[in-house]
Amino acid sequence: MVAAAIAGAVPGSAAASTTSTTSTSGSPAEVATLPAPQLAASRADIPLVAGATGFLHQEQGLPGYTWTDYASGTDTAQPQLSAVPASGTTFLSAGGDHVAYQNGAKLGVGDPTVAGSWVTYDLSSLGAVHIVGDVSQNGTRALVQEIGGISHLLQLNADGTTTELPLTGLPSGTGYTNSALGYQNSGDYELVRSTPKSGVSGTVGYYLLNLDTGAATSVSGIPLSATSATVRGDYLIWRSTGGVSVVKVADLLAGTATPTQVASPANPGSLLDYGVVGQQVVMLTQVAAGAPQVLSAVPIAGGPAVQLDATVSLPVPSNQFPGYLAQGPGGILAIGATSPSGGLAVQHLTAAADGTVDVTAVRGLPAPAETTVTLTMAHGQVRQMLTVPQLNAATRFAAATTPLAGSGSGVGKTSTGYLNNGGFTPLQAGPCALDASCVREADGNFYGPVYTTTTATSADVFVNGLEFGENFTTPDTRVVDVDSSYVVIDSAGTQHLWEPGQNAMITLGTANGAALWMGTLWRATGPGQFQASLPQNGLAVAPAVKRTISTGATCTATEVQVAQHWLYWSCGSTGPAGIYDLSTDTEFGVDPGPALLGDGYLVRHDAASGELRLTDIHTDSVGATSVLATVPQPAGTSDDRGIDWTVDRTSGDVAYTGTDNVVHVLTTGVPASTVTATGGAWNNGITPGQQWGFGFEASRPLASWQLVIRRATTGQVVYSYTGGATAASGANSWNGLLQGGTPAFDGTYDWQLLTVPADAAGTTPTQSATGTMGVYYGRMPFHSYGENGQSTLLGVLNKPAFGYGYGYGMEYTGNGNGTYASPVASTYWNLGTGPGQLNAVVPFGDVNGDGYNDVVVRTSSGELEYYPNQPAGDVLNNATPRTIGGGWNIYNSLVSVGDLNGDGHDDLLARDASGELWLYPGTGRGGFAPRVAIGGGWNTYARIIGVGDLNGDGISDLLAVDTHGGLWRYFGNGKGGFDARVKLGTGYWIYNAMVGVGDVDGHGLNSVVARDTAGVLWRYDFTASGALEPRIRVGGGWNIYSNLY
């Protein structure tokens, strides 16, 4: 909020003037360009079948299935496959460029190079569960096997029907289970394993089935372990120990086959997939989990493995069978890093003339084609919402965030991530009235960007990552504005205020214009009327109105924006519209139409010319207009604010997206406002040793900031911390201890936030916020007995008063302004000279080192005792006196002087009958060190008064009134003695009581109160030099006390 602009600022927060630092504008300048972000270096691709002249695949960014020609790279979409799901579908070569797929009981066959060639076949009549083992002969033959061993060779007719063909040469199906083992991608044969059924006497045999004729030929030399043997070109290949085994199909048919063992280059390790290219076995291996997948070629005839690609990207294996490598008449396909651009590519593996394997990148895979559809900027941070096409899924939204202000290694770097609805469901792109998406974003909330997503019947408003949001039963819902804590939402004509951090929302009323700025809610409440209110944490009560302004307009604003100390209002697209300077109460009109308010300027996008125009208003008038850029407005949009251009009302920058999808960030040249801040603490006071947590939000990004804490009464700096660059906020804490670990004095402390804006690094810090806090139960100041550090005056009644009888002690606590609050009874003080009575009462400092001031007393027998003060500050209440020692009746005056020798402990002065003044140094352990003589001649004084530190030098001082009424001042020398005395005045014999009461008026210096014979109490303040100020009347009626202490 702009605290200076609101009457009755929030306690604990304030701000300096928000007027501009200069009146001269500069020129706009581009300060950053942000290329279209990339969520991945390469788009995903799944090769499915390697045909003779091209391949079938799925690629991120392309709909459905695509056929790509090897030689030309030409893509041919396959619309007939649009209903074929990727999940649960097996693709296999059907010979040449023909491709087949199976999904359940459906078999599809077609030539992707020929439009409309796909034909589907219903296999449900062949049994409940069946597997298509092979499709060959250019899609005219299919071997289908039922679970249980019954195989069917089908003629695939062009009209979608099938004709079953006879199988010959296999053992009878009544006694044997004939199982097709491999899945042929090229060639005319399929290996069949024939196993005797239970109870049938026989042996396991292998047969090569000719898919053209249906005739099976018995073959030998294949071990029983070859359960996955598959025909690959001219070879039959199967997995074996340490690698694979291969044998030529022709040798099997001729009866001369001898399998060849080909070792895996990653043994031990994982052999993920394999195939045959010419006279080489291609193997995809991985030495260990998490290691790269390596593609190698191993000669069948023997020889070392040749690495083809060291980093293969694995597609989803369930989308093709049997594994990761797509195979077929055209060779093998893999996704690897061999690409002219250096990125991933679809690699085509074919047989070279010299018997090796050629690797050709037939399809480069650049980054996915992401498009910026929403652009916002807050606190020097650019945020783009992107539509990102997916593989086998609907287009999704992602967010790209680039901080340009603040600190850390992330400044200037873009981070990306997909968007989630409350951390649960991935958000998908869909149609929207204004732009290409139905998700709109508002930035500046502490918890993250705020999004609105709509359906045909509802809308959700949520913060990305929070596990809750707000649901509305109408799509007519939009986020109006956000700040660090709150969100204003309009839904179906009603306005709401949401606090994401507390998951709380209240209804504000009719959806008029509204805006949020640093904790202040501004709303249009009537024609020309605007109110500023302060929402309370948790929204348990309605926001309290703090300020009302009037523009004189005859309409109620439908739009309100606030930036720094400027308020923009508009009554619709035709106006009127205006600006109100909240710091000067100046109002002036501006042109209507969609605009964004910045710090001292307005920005508009002219649809006709494409010009992004900035109008300077920082002098409280409509100034010059300049063109920031020329970019066309997106088609179909009449208001593209937050879509392809935006304003950062904190940093003062403007950002827009060019036609190249690059974001450009510009400074405007308009003078920036002075930094303001809302600052405060989670607690208003602390006990030393605890933590006083401080946090703030700044109106602009900062180069540095400083927190300074001073004791309110003296101005002494007790704590200072300097923070570095920050985009929006900062935090720190103080433990209530001084340097060296000494607890701070009780009382009020002022904190001050000093800042240096990010665009003025190296300049002198200026005040952005101030406030107060308190220290309680720390060190008690001189003559203070409460936890709040205020001065305490004690008196003993000589007559009944305040409901208490003679002899009761009363406590007066200072109000901090030179007066005292109503007295509180302490306890009965048994004063007198008789047995068990007290003949001296000395309000003292801390006798026992517990941090609380105590009261020293002397009994009639000469015993010196002290009453420990309680943590609640009750003098003598509920306390048992503790003995210090005897023999103190030799003194006719006992005076608490404070710390006279500079050792950190309070000391006691005592004058004997001869006029000798003695110093008893305090030990802080419940007693005093041996006495030290200060000097003689002190019997010339009728009264000696301990006053603590009079001149602010940290050393205790002394006052004395002589027998003629002269008042004398003794400055302490810090060594246990005093400097030469100075006479302050005469006539002080009129007072029958004088007490040094500490700082009673909050001016940082100690005072003295004196009672005259009429019972009037007077206060004497001192200057910083120790001079006496004219007396001030405190009040009458003080003669009800026998004495004051």
Automatic annotation (TrEMBL):
SUPFAM superfamilies cross-referenced by the UniProt entry: Integrin alpha N-terminal domain
Gene3D superfamilies referenced in this protein's UniProt entry, alphabetically: Integrin alpha, N-terminal (2.130.10.130)
Keyword Signal tagged: yes
Membrane-crossing residue ranges in chain numbering: none
Alphabetical keyword list: Signal
Keyword Signal part of the UniProt annotation: yes
Listed name of the protein: Repeat domain-containing protein
Organism annotation: Streptacidiphilus jiangxiensis
